[in-house]
């Protein structure tokens, strides 16, 4: 009980420190991780909403465009794409959301002043606590859950715009409220947001059910690479640069592909290998619970959660597959 109380006290202190950080500064740069997912995108918008309510000036930016399927969210049209729009100044106050380590922000860090102060808001267990102020809750289902707590702590009144952002982040990071991180607190927040008028079924259709033509063609191509090892306890798919070009698919179309090998009966770990560039392979890992894939990913320079993590391997697709089959296979013996 004491450790639980200490954890709650520490979190309350972090909320207070984050609130003070925001109250005492202005002209913020808000950034999430490269190739943002639902939680990263929603957390960016939710942070912008909080700053707007407080009368703060801010710039939201990411390395690359935000996924188009989140275009219905408040703030989507305000996010700068670093590949197309680069601010002509350096920022002294940064808020990073959903980034487990500094490198996850990519080239955005070139916009940080040498004396920049950074508020690190995240829920990944592998977060290395970069930055000058930390708001980290490892057992939160999503970073948006922490931002919801921060808004309430700062006595802001959630409206529908904010509610859509929070609900979307919770929905995507809990797999439609199906994963083990779907806590009573998550459901209570979800219920509160629904009472604000959030249309949960509409959002679920948009972000979880609807697929593009290029996405379904890419899935067809990827499933032809489905492979198994370790008595079918390990399964994976691979997507090459040629596959992406042939199908006309984008990085957004890869979302959810890793679940196909993971969901096969008897599989303990599913993996997706994506060739990002010649000699650079992004690996996504999903565990059914027996294997801590965060530890594996972290040992290879990546990170994430016990059941969902990722890392980058230098080499060909074949070399990356061989390495990861060995690394994960050692945990399945």
Q: What topology does this entry show?
A:
Blueprint: H1 2-24, E1 28-31, H2 38-53, E2 58-62, E3 80-81, E4 91-97, E5 112-122, E6 133-136, H3 143-153, H4 160-173, H5 184-195, H6 200-209, H7 213-223, E7 227-229, E8 234-239, H8 241-247, H9 259-262, E9 269-277, E10 280-287, H10 293-299, E11 303-304, E12 308-314, H11 317-332
Parallel strand pairs: 1-2, 1-4, 2-3, 4-5, 5-6, 8-9
Antiparallel strand pairs: 7-8, 9-10, 10-12, 11-12
Low-confidence segments, given as residue ranges, are none
General shape: globular
Order of helices and strands: HEHEEEEEHHHHHEEHHEEHEEH
Annotation field: number of helices:
11
Structural class: alpha/beta
| Order of the strands making up the biggest sheet | 3-2-1-4-5-6
Mind explaining what this structure looks like?
With 333 residues, this protein is an alpha/beta fold. The chain is 39% helix and 20% strand. It has eleven helices and twelve strands. It has helices spanning 2-24, 38-53, 143-153, 160-173, 184-195, 200-209, 213-223, 241-247, 259-262, 293-299, 317-332; strands spanning 28-31, 58-62, 80-81, 91-97, 112-122, 133-136, 227-229, 234-239, 269-277, 280-287, 303-304, 308-314. The strands form two sheets. A six-stranded parallel beta sheet has the order 3-2-1-4-5-6. Helix 2 packs parallel to helix 3 and helix 3 runs antiparallel to helix 4 (160-173). The protein is globular. The model has no long low-confidence stretch (mean pLDDT 95).
């Amino acid at each position: 009980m004491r450790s639980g109380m200490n954890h709650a006290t520490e979190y309350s202190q972090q909320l207070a420190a984050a609130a003070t950080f925001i109250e005492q500064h202005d002209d913020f740069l808000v950034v999430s991780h490269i190739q943002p997912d639902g939680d990263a995108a929603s957390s960016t918008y939710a942070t912008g909403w909080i700053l707007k309510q407080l009368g703060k000036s801010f710039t939201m930016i990411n390395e690359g465009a935000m996924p188009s399927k989140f275009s219905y969210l408040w703030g989507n049209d305000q996010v700068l794409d670093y590949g197309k729009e680069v601010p002509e100044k350096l920022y002294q106050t940064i808020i990073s959301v959903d980034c487990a380590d500094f490198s996850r922000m990519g080239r955005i860090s070139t916009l940080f002043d040498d004396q920049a102060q950074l508020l690190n808001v995240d829920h990944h267990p592998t977060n290395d606590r970069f930055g000058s102020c930390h708001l980290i809750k490892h057992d939160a289902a999503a970073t948006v859950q922490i931002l919801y707590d921060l808004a309430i702590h700062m006595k802001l009144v959630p409206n529908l715009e904010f509610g859509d952002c929070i609900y979307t982040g919770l929905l995507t990071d809990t797999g439609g409220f199906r994963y083990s991180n779907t806590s009573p607190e998550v459901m209570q927040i979800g219920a509160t947001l629904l009472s604000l008028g959030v249309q949960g079924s509409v959002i679920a259709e948009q972000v979880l059910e609807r697929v593009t033509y290029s996405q379904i063609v890419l899935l067809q191509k990827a499933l032809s690479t489905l492979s198994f090892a370790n008595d079918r306890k390990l399964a994976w798919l691979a997507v090459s640069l040629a596959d992406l070009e042939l199908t006309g698919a984008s990085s957004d179309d890869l979302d959810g592909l890793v679940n196909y090998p993971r969901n096969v009966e008897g599989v303990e770990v599913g993996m997706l290998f994506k060739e990002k560039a010649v000699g650079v392979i992004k690996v996504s890992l999903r565990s059914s619970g027996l294997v801590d894939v965060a530890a594996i990913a972290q040992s290879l320079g990546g990170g994430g959660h016990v059941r969902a993590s990722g890392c980058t391997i230098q080499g060909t697709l074949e070399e990356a597959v061989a390495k990861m089959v060995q690394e994960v296979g050692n945990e399945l013996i």
